[in-house]
Design brief:
The chain has 203 residues and is of the alpha/beta class. The chain has 6 helices and 5 strands, in the order βαβαβαααβαβ.
């Protein structure tokens, strides 16, 4: 039997100034770029795929455009697929945030809360829970996530690294789907995502 796959599709180009932090910032995506991405994705996706999307509007736009082209798809919102929340950094330029706060984050990459928002341990935990649900479903179909670069990197880490290991900044996957593109992962029956407890911050 062909193993199931997880398709992680990234939203199209967001309408935000270059060089700005926009994790949980709910900005729209370029309409033409979204339409182009939906056309490409609609042709590539297999029949019967189960589809979920981040609640942020740049992902909702792609989900809605895709559903117009593929009315066979039933899309559900899953808040676990949202991008990392950078707290007070949201909407600010990286230059304005400054080197010292970024260095403090990379020094404790898994547990530090950049901008007072989420830490990476929290994001990994929610993505791991979504992955577990995808794996445990009785349905044999592939799964589509319309999501963000950070979530796609979490998937890569969770499927390819030892369970429960906290990533350092120099270990974190750099590769992610391009804007409007996607990556396909094999969805093994027993992925290495059994525990993220040791990643949780203290206090």
């Amino acid at each position: 039997m062909t193993p199931r796959r997880l398709w992680t599709a990234r939203h199209a180009q967001p309408l935000v100034a270059p060089g700005h932090c926009y994790g949980a910032l709910d900005v729209p995506a370029d309409a033409a770029a979204t339409a182009h991405s939906a056309e490409q994705l609609a042709q590539a996706l297999p029949q019967g795929i189960r589809a979920y999307h981040s609640p942020l509007q740049r992902c909702e736009q792609l989900a809605q455009a895709l559903q117009r082209l593929r009315p066979d798809l039933v899309l559900q919102t899953d808040p676990r697929l949202a991008e990392m929340n950078f707290g007070a950094w949201e909407g600010r330029s990286w230059d304005n945030i400054g080197r010292a706060p970024i260095d403090a984050w990379t020094a404790d990459f898994a547990n530090h809360r950049p901008g007072g928002g989420e830490n990476l341990a929290t994001v990994l935990a929610r993505v791991a829970a979504a992955l577990a649900d995808a794996r445990q479903s009785a349905a044999p179909a592939d799964v589509l996530w319309i999501t963000h670069a950070g979530v796609a990197r979490c998937v890569q880490w969770l499927l390819q690294s030892p369970p429960g290991v906290a990533p350092r900044a120099d270990q974190w996957p750099v590769a992610a789907p391009a804007l409007g593109a996607w990556t396909v992962f094999a969805l093994p029956n027993e992925p290495k995502i059994k525990s993220t407890q040791r990643l949780q911050h203290k206090g």
